[in-house]
Amino acid sequence: MRFINFAVVKFSVFLTLGILSAYFFPTATSTLPFVLFGFGLLIVLWFIERKHLQKSIFFGILTYLIFFGIGSASYQLQLPKFQDRHYSKVISEINNSETPLLSLKITEVLKPDRYNYKYIAECNAVNTFETTGNVLLNIRKDSILKEYTIDDVLLISERVVSIPKPLNPHQFDYSAYMKKLGVYYQLRTKPRDILAYEKGRTTIWGNAASFRNHLIAKLKKSKITKDERSIIQALVLGERRDIDKQLYADYAAAGAVHILAVSGLHVGILFFILKWLFLPLGNLRYGEQLKAIAVIGCLFGFALLAGLSPSVVRAATMFSLFLFAEQLKRPTNSINTLFLSYLLLLLINPLWLFHVGFQLSYLAVFFILLIQPKLYAYWHPKNVVLRKIWAIVTVTVAAQIGVVPLSLFYFHQFPGLFLITNIVVLPFLGILLGIGLVIVLLVFLNTLPSWLAEAYNYVVSWLNSFIRWVANQDGFLFQDIHFSEGKTMASYLVIISIILLWKRYSYRRLTVCLASVCVLLGVFIWDKQKVSGNELIVFQKNRNTLMAVKQGANLTLFRSDTLSETLKNTFPIKAYRTAHKIDHFSEQLFPKVFSYGNKTILVVDSSAIVPKRAKIDLVVLTQSPKINLERLIDSLKPMKIIADGNNYKSYVNRWRSTCATKKLPFYHTGTKGAFILE
């Protein structure tokens, strides 16, 4: 901690708080004028106090407030309502009866789903008006359609709509995810509805994507098999779209998924390889400067080729700052460099703060720098191999301590054999990455020898086999772990307080540590109390009938048949079970009539069997029953009609009209989401 520049840390903290305040507490008033006013006031204060070695407290407070304001303003500027030429504003001002004509330039190619190719595109024009802003573009898959690439420009006449919210509780919110990428709307189209296509002005990102696709096309012609080729694409080119879904799940279960995402680990290995390669430049005049420029250029070239993900940019920026400090002949602290890179990247793009990769990357490096040296100092083996293994163990443990709470929050699982996986994999990762770079270079030059391709294929195949073996040890993979935001924050409070106590014991730090443990216990009790209630839920799933009754930690699922495979680990049941900490799960055929609380519920399926006289509170319509709903309402007098996702749309529309005529509440899960009765 001796050489930490706490000003950089404080600036980073206040910038982060400013971004978070704008995210969680949105306002219609721009904070940019206040930032500019504060900056002007800061300059005035500096002129007044420039001869003072110690600045006044007002100068410090104003500086921190300015960084807070910069964070808030920079996030606000990413929002459509603060962009005068955003396409959504232009579309809202034109005639709603007209379908707008959109000029879209593809900026990012996303992983396609079963039915659509997906892209993020910049909307350059609406009709004749120049616009800004990104949109999610979904193009229906077609047997003759080729995938578009970055910098392609499409002319499309389609309506822009909001990205839908999830229709089931605790389901992944794709709408919120896209907003964190700066995308607020989407459009869907078919290949035949694309009016024009041309290659737009080439950008550096487009050139990098074209070069990457060219290399991948050449790799496909080599003797490297599909699964192994997908690994080298991920390691060297940052392209993970071709990785088999099950293979990716195996890497996640084994605790090795981080090696598939180009990050600081890969950039660090490349950094030391490049420093070694450019050693001869040091003998030239200005050789050290030339070497630094060459290494930095190669690092950012690799980052560009790998797609400029936040974790790669972070690592390239951080190592570049290390080199810059070396050239200035000034000692630096790694934590200073980490926070300086963090500050610079958030100033460039505040939305990166909400990227999972960005969060995990910085947390892992921060905890490695914070606790790995002290951990490593506990043992000094004389054997070189043991020293290397001990270094890997301490780095892995330190990184895992830093990312465990956030990983549990996002992914709800913990790989118990992560340590064994990393001890085996990490020593060979540098070799895999180095030879992978050589293979990609030789493929580009059309000089890849067969023996090298086959040897590399064998090594990667062995790696995949080892990963599959680890992943199959089900007893060491802890899944379906409920971990809320409160638990995540309280866990980090406990971890940091324990680390501070471990570094230097004092009564005050012990008190803080015990208090943080009490906070964590309180959060656990609160979360358990929050999910301990009872509820009836009608899930939304197209062409499926799913109802469930939750009683505390017990969940009984009602379904149309019990012969097929259990639905325990399928959508949307798995996410619901995890979020509500369900311990006991069972499945039954759904009853025609049953009671929940003081309500009597009638389920009408395709058999269309309806009791003539009964006291019914709620009617659930499923499997598109052919009934006279008006007659049913008159005879049973229910309080509400519910239609799930297993009904024809024409039937749902007809039922909705009937209920509107009868002035009876109608609930369609396909429109409003899952129906929940507490």
Features:
eight-stranded mixed sheet; 22 helices; 678 residues; alpha+beta; transmembrane helix; transmembrane; DUF4131; OB fold (Dihydrolipoamide Acetyltransferase, E2P); five-stranded mixed sheet; 20 strands
What is the global morphology?
Answer: globular
Percent helix:
40-55%
Counted by DSSP, the helix tally is: 22
Q: List how many beta strands DSSP finds.
A: 20
Number of discrete domains: 5
Mean pLDDT: 88
Range of strand content: 5-15%
Rg of Cα set: 29 Å
Low-confidence runs of at least 5 consecutive residues: none
The chain-level structural class is alpha+beta
Biggest β-sheet description: 8 strands, mixed
**First-last Cα distance:** 52 Å
Short note summarizing the structure:
By secondary structure, the chain is an alpha+beta fold. The protein is 51% helix and 15% strand. The chain has 5 domains: 72 residues; 115 residues, OB fold (Dihydrolipoamide Acetyltransferase, E2P); 270 residues, no CATH class; 46 residues; 144 residues, no CATH class.
